[in-house]
Amino acid sequence: MTEIRKVAVLGTGVLGSQIAFQSAYTGFEVVAYDINDESLQKARLRLAALVETYRKEVTGAAGLQADTMGRIILTSDLAAAVADADLVIEAVPEVLAIKQALYEKLARLAPSDTILATNSSTLLPSDLKDFTGRPDRFLALHFANNIWKFNTAEVMGTPETDPAVIDTILKFASDIGMVPIPIRREKAGYVLNSLLVPLLNAAAELAEGGYANPHDVDKVWRIATGAPMGPFQIYDMIGLNTPYNILSHSDEHAGSLAAWLKENYIDKGKLGIASGEGFYSYKPAD
Ligand code: NAD
Predict the structure, then answer these.
(1) Distance from the alpha carbon of residue 90 to the mean position of ligand 1, in angstroms
(2) Where are the domains of the chain?
(3) Residues contacting ligand 1 via CB (< 6 Å)
(4) Which class would CATH give 6-182?
(5) Cα distance between residue 190 and residue 203, in whole Å
(6) Minimum-distance ligand 1 atom for the alpha carbon of 118
(7) pLDDT band at residue 274, thresholds of 50, 70 and 90?
């Protein structure tokens, strides 16, 4: 099994910054790459915000000090970022052409034994494997947003991925504090989104069709199943733009759900927790 010591994270947006920070927090040396100085400046702000979040929300992190940040190098030099990485985790935008172009560069720049992993939410690793130059050392490693508390890591190879590489990444996921979940055959949406997307769509259908209002849909789900959150609370946590984008690209009926979300919520600036209001209000009481 390959020993992972040095990790390169490509893309320092919402998920990339979290993956870089969590890996450094758990003791790994991390190089985080993004395309230009402006993106790296945003990354610095995201990482600084994560220091505060961990201090508040992660048991044992109250005294979190500079050593975590000291283990993260930020760079816009891709060749330097991956030169001696044991593992590259790609978290760049969910656009096939961007990812393919990046893997074509990695095929040349990353040492041939470096393992490459994509955090893609909707693409299959088979969509990308032929661009990596090493299909046997390529797989998906899928995190959930807010990885310090929602710590699943779904690990999914293609039929060409070496089983030893899958084992290496299951162990790495565990080493960085995740609960590793092997996905045994390629499946768009992994386990998480295969379950969550239909639940969120069904909830939207109930509210859009006038059967029950969002708060009552949530109440039924919470009380009758014991779940801590209802589907509309989950919408607010994710942010309404992402489900809207998924619905807009789904079948015809989903289009009317997308329009309902847009007209009643998104166009009114109700985007979820991040905007202070979605299906619920998060504004501090006056
Ligand atoms: P994001 O838009 O927040 O961040 C993407 C980052 O990639 C940006 O910093 C951007 O500057 C950078 N980037 C753009 N082109 C690049 C390139 N060629 N090379 C390197 N960096 C580049 O996106 P995100 O939400 O962090 O999503 C990234 C990936 O993670 C996607 O594949 C997405 O499906 C997946 N994902 C996202 C979530 C989520 O909740 N946001 C959850 C799980 C998985």
Answers:
(1) 8
(2) 6-182, 196-275
(3) 10-16, 33-35, 39, 91-94, 98, 102, 119-121, 143, 145
(4) alpha beta
(5) 21
(6) 32
(7) confident
Q: What is the pLDDT of residues 100-149, one digit of tens each?
A: 999 999 999 999 999 999 999 989 999 999 999 999 999 999 999 999 99
Token pair for residue 52? 């505060």
DSSP single-letter state for residue 240: T
Question: 21: CA distance to ligand 1 center in Å?
Answer: 15
- Residue identified by tokens 């905007």 is 275
Q: Which of 188, 273, 281 is nearest to 239 (CA)?
A: 273
Mean pLDDT for all residues in the chain: 95
C-alpha 123 to ligand 1 mean position (Å): 13
Asked if CATH classification 3.40.50.2300 holds for the domain at 196-275, the reply, yes or no, is no
pTM, full prediction: 0.92
25: pLDDT strictly greater than 70: yes
Cα Rg of the chain (Å, integer): 20
